[in-house]
Design a protein that fits this description.
Blueprint (H helix, E strand, L loop, with lengths): L22 E5 L6 E5 L8 E2 L3 E10 L2 E8 L5 E7 L10 H11 L9 E6 L6 E6 L3 E2 H7 L6 H20 L2 E2 L8 E3 L5 E3 L6 E2 L19 H4 L8 H16 L9 H12 L29 H4 L5 H10 L10 H5 L20 H5 L18 E2 L13 E2 L6
Parallel strand pairs: 3-7
Antiparallel strand pairs: 1-2, 4-5, 5-6, 6-8, 7-8, 9-11, 10-13, 11-12, 14-15
GO biological process, one term: regulation of mitotic cell cycle
Subcellular location: Cytoplasm, Cytoskeleton, Cilium basal body
Keywords: ATP-binding, Cell projection, Cilium biogenesis/degradation, Cytoplasm, Cytoskeleton, Kinase, Nucleotide-binding, Phosphoprotein, Serine/threonine-protein kinase, Transferase
Length: 397
């Protein structure tokens, strides 16, 4: 009886000749697993990136460059995120696989949607096709003619908390929450993006890489060397973002880890073991001598904010991460039920040209700045104090 021929879905296990056959990476959309195989005629699992017309570069995430592109099949505008492959000799980097695995299984109105994975003819040409959002909060804060109103800030914050609650309920820590990773559609819908540093977690929490989260949004337990990371590090970052939106400038714009710690102490006071059990045993305290500052200055920094608003910020900035507000605590907070009420997302301002046509940050004209010129870490590395060249505008009140 004649042996049946192999189907196109079966993988030929014979050793391929690398000099005669090109090797490509195929990714299963269902599992997120990748394998490198010969024969470019097996691209049926993924569409070719040639079916997308790149329109312009719109940013750079932790692990990839992002383009605005047009799907030539459907004429839909999408975001194409090129996966970084600089040091990879075979297959996808683990960071890319993690992001694909997470996003494939996440469907929520406040989390960016991964539509598909497409490939080019070379190993270093792998792209994530994502829902396109017209702007990100970082560029809006840098370019808006007037700051967000408090009603608009509440609208943004509620959507951010909704997205975080969904992630945390599904045992995912984002670990790089910042304004440039919060996108807005032209309908005012906020999307949490860039999951290159995200991790799943279990109970009990296991140690993770300590140097995560962009410096300005990094929680004190991470700055001081704790290896245990919980959803509380996302909530600290959320507090920094809420404060930034309310003040219309970065809340804690440190340029080094030690300065970041000092800025936190200036704002919240010096921690101790009574308010933060285990504080004195944190690894980095062997290297740093922190100044003594007994006062919490949030009320002075946000003198115009209501008592409920101050309570929310204080709850998000608890030194003891076990007592820090959760996303659900924030959603239930009285700050969002007092006047001014959160506005309808459809009434949020939109400025599509800031995202579609904006120049590279290094070419932007100088903006009006405060007496100390801070620069936004819009697309900076997650590690260390590298900063870009986008100046923060002076708050307009």
């Amino acid at each position: 009886m004649q042996k049946p021929s192999k189907t196109s879905s079966e993988h030929d296990t014979r050793e391929a000749d690398p000099e005669k056959e090109k090797r490509v990476t195929l990714i299963s959309i269902k599992t997120g697993q990748a394998m490198t195989i010969p024969n470019t005629d097996r691209l049926g699992l993924c569409r070719s990136v040639s079916e997308f017309e790149k329109l312009n570069r719109i940013g750079e995430g932790t692990y990839g460059i992002v383009y605005r592109a047009r799907d030539t099949r459907s004429d839909e505008i999408v975001a194409l995120k090129k996966v970084r492959m600089e040091k990879e000799k075979d297959g996808l980097p683990i960071s890319g696989l993690r992001e694909i695995n997470l996003l494939i299984n996440l469907r929520h109105k406040n989390v960016v949607e991964l539509k598909e994975v497409v490939v080019g003819s070379h190993l270093d040409s792998i792209f994530l096709v994502m829902m396109y959002c017209e702007q990100d909060l970082a560029s809006l804060l840098d370019n808006m003619p007037a700051p967000f109103t408090e009603a608009q800030v509440k609208c943004i914050a509620l959507q951010m908390m909704n997205g975080l609650q969904f992630l945390h309920d599904n045992f995912i820590i984002h670990r790089d929450l910042k304004v440039s990773n919060l996108l807005l559609t032209d309908k005012g819908c906020l999307k949490i993006a860039d999951f290159g540093l995200a991790r799943t977690f279990g109970i009990p929490f296991r140690p993770m890489t300590p140097r995560v989260v962009t410096l300005w949004y990094r929680a004190p337990e991470v700055l001081l060397g704790s290896s245990v990371q919980t959803t509380a590090i996302d909530m600290w970052a959320a507090g920094c973002i809420l404060g930034e939106l309310l003040a219309n400038q970065p809340l804690l714009p440190g340029t080094s880890e030690i300065q970041q710690i000092q800025l936190i102490i200036d704002l919240l006071g010096t921690p101790n073991d009574s308010i933060w059990p285990g504080y004195s045993s944190l690894p980095m305290l062997e290297k740093y001598t922190l100044k003594k500052q007994p006062y919490n200055n949030l009320k002075h920094r946000f003198s115009w904010l209501s008592q409920a608003g101050l309570r929310l910020l204080n709850n998000l900035f608890m030194y003891n991460s076990t007592k820090r507000a959760t996303a659900q605590d924030c959603l239930d907070h009285s700050y969002f039920t007092e006047q001014p009420l959160p506005c309808d997302p459809k009434l949020m301002p939109t400025f599509p040209h800031h995202r579609n046509k904006r120049k590279k940050s290094s070419n932007m004209p100088p903006a009006e700045t405060t007496s100390v010129t801070y620069k936004r870490e819009e697309f900076g590395q997650a590690f260390g104090p590298q900063i870009s060249t986008v100046a923060i505008k002076k708050p307009k009140r």
